[in-house]
Structures are given as structure tokens and as C-alpha cells.
Amino acid sequence: MMRILITNDDGINAPGLEVMEQIAAELAGPDGEVWTVAPAFEQSGVAHCISYSHPTMVAKLGPRRYAAEGSPADCVLAAISDIMADSPPDLVLSGVNRGNNSGENVMYSGTVGGAMEAALQGLPAVALSQYMGPKTAELDDMFQAARTHGATVIRRILDHGDWTSGEDFRLFYNVNFPPTSAADVAGLRVAPQGRRRGAGFGVVPYTAPNGRRFMWVAGGSQQAPARAGSDVAVNMDGYVSVTPMRADLTCHFSLDRLSQTLDRDLGDHAREQTEARDGK
């Protein structure tokens, strides 16, 4: 029997969560269980934030269904440490997010943050997001691609994914469904995280009637190009992207080169400075 925990960052009443419930129910089967612990209110953009400095209220809304006044990572912690403490989930699914979490969006995503927290707790986890665009806007169901192909994609990841790599940081997976109808999905591609060129977040200033200054955070074009073969690029080409990730921000490529110049005893450096100052 599979026990699946689902969460999201769009909130307990978000339409994407209903899609995720359907996907999870298909995966769990008639003998399995689907548990929902999701934010009471939208938490988009909170990344891997946790409510460290204040308490979080958790309310039971129904059988195996809870809302927490916190972030997706808070919800995962509440489920693992309290709600499901006696029998932890076999799998954690975060999403389905309304909008993509490809490219630079990954760094801000509460959807990805929920999956990351599950991985840090030693559990298999997948984040799922539905890329939106002109084609999905014409559909009766904007989540059609994720709803139709979600369970199949997750089964393939469960069967073939690397769930053991990394001694310290367990892998999790970031899945983005393309901005197309389900019938137009071209296939599945394993892809690295990309970055849209010239499409980062910015600020739109606003002055209220009382003269106080505020700001709105605004994102750039989600249709902007990115490096060929990256998650953004394959999504725009109609493919589902699967990106293995882990909570390790180390740039391993630079470690050896940098250590050759920086791995020095600070006492030696101080002596060299003294000798240079004294003209020796």
C-alpha cells in the first residue's frame, strides 16, 4: 500500500491541487492513501522558507486533509513530524503549480521548496508544475497536460530515477509540463535547469493615496529564450522536462581550481604581507 503526501504553494483551494489529488490517487491505487497538507493561503515565491520564528496553525479540514498557515516546507514538516508521524509517507508530491518552475523560477518556487524539504527529510519527492501560455489559455482545462500525463511521468521517475545519489543531500525531481494540450505533448526529456535571457524578476513601484511608497514584484516574459536543451527550452518545444535536483548549492566545478589559490594558511599570508611592507 502506497501512502502519498501532497502539498503545493498555490494554497489548499487551488485548482492545481485538485489535479495533484487525481494524479496521487491514480498512483496510490484503491488500497493506498493520499494525504493533503497544504498552505491555507497562497505561498507562491516563498522558495524553501520555513516559519522558524513564529508558530504555524494547522487545521484539519476532513479525512487526511489539512491546511497550515505556513509555507510548503512547513506543510511537509507538519505532516512528517506530527500528522503522519506514526506512518510517514512513501512519496511526497508538490504541486501541480499554476505556472512553470523551469529556469530561474526554480530558485523562488515554493513548489520546489516543498519537494526539497521532503528530500532533506529522507523521502522521495517530486515537484510538478504546469507551464502556461497562449495554447493553454484556449483550453477548458489549463492543467490538461499535467492531468493526463502526470501519473505516467511519475511512475517512470519512480522506476528509473536515481533515488540514492548523494551521501548528504538526497535527490528530488522537478517536473514541468509544457504549455500545450495533452495531445500535443511531444514526449519527455531529462534536462538541466536553464535561465531565460533578460527575463528576471523586477520591481514596479507604486505610491498609495496616503503618499506611502509600495512595490509590486513582477516577473519577466515566460516565453523568453533559454539555452538549448535546458528545461525552459524543451518545455517551449512541447516536451515534459524532468530535472534531478538536490539541496546543494556548491559549484563543484570550481572547487579544485579555487582551492589551489585560496587553500593557504592565513599566517603565511600575513607573513608575506609583512615582508612586502618591510621590503624584504
TrEMBL record:
<dbReference type="InterPro" id="IPR030048">
    <property type="entry name" value="SurE"/>
</dbReference>
<keyword id="KW-0378">Hydrolase</keyword>
<dbReference type="GO" id="GO:0005737">
    <property type="term" value="C:cytoplasm"/>
</dbReference>
<feature type="binding site">
    <location>
        <position position="10"/>
    </location>
    <ligand>
        <name>a divalent metal cation</name>
    </ligand>
</feature>
<keyword id="KW-0963">Cytoplasm</keyword>
<keyword id="KW-0547">Nucleotide-binding</keyword>
<dbReference type="GO" id="GO:0008253">
    <property type="term" value="F:5'-nucleotidase activity"/>
</dbReference>
<comment type="similarity">
    <text>Belongs to the SurE nucleotidase family.</text>
</comment>
<dbReference type="GO" id="GO:0046872">
    <property type="term" value="F:metal ion binding"/>
</dbReference>
<dbReference type="GO" id="GO:0008254">
    <property type="term" value="F:3'-nucleotidase activity"/>
</dbReference>
<keyword id="KW-0479">Metal-binding</keyword>
<dbReference type="GO" id="GO:0004309">
    <property type="term" value="F:exopolyphosphatase activity"/>
</dbReference>
<dbReference type="Pfam" id="PF01975">
    <property type="entry name" value="SurE"/>
</dbReference>
<feature type="binding site">
    <location>
        <position position="9"/>
    </location>
    <ligand>
        <name>a divalent metal cation</name>
    </ligand>
</feature>
<protein>
    <recommendedName>
        <fullName>5'-nucleotidase SurE</fullName>
        <ecNumber>3.1.3.5</ecNumber>
    </recommendedName>
</protein>
<comment type="function">
    <text>Nucleotidase that shows phosphatase activity on nucleoside 5'-monophosphates.</text>
</comment>
<dbReference type="GO" id="GO:0000166">
    <property type="term" value="F:nucleotide binding"/>
</dbReference>
<dbReference type="InterPro" id="IPR002828">
    <property type="entry name" value="SurE-like_Pase/nucleotidase"/>
</dbReference>
<feature type="binding site">
    <location>
        <position position="44"/>
    </location>
    <ligand>
        <name>a divalent metal cation</name>
    </ligand>
</feature>
<feature type="binding site">
    <location>
        <position position="97"/>
    </location>
    <ligand>
        <name>a divalent metal cation</name>
    </ligand>
</feature>
<dbReference type="InterPro" id="IPR036523">
    <property type="entry name" value="SurE-like_sf"/>
</dbReference>
<feature type="domain" description="Survival protein SurE-like phosphatase/nucleotidase">
    <location>
        <begin position="4"/>
        <end position="197"/>
    </location>
</feature>
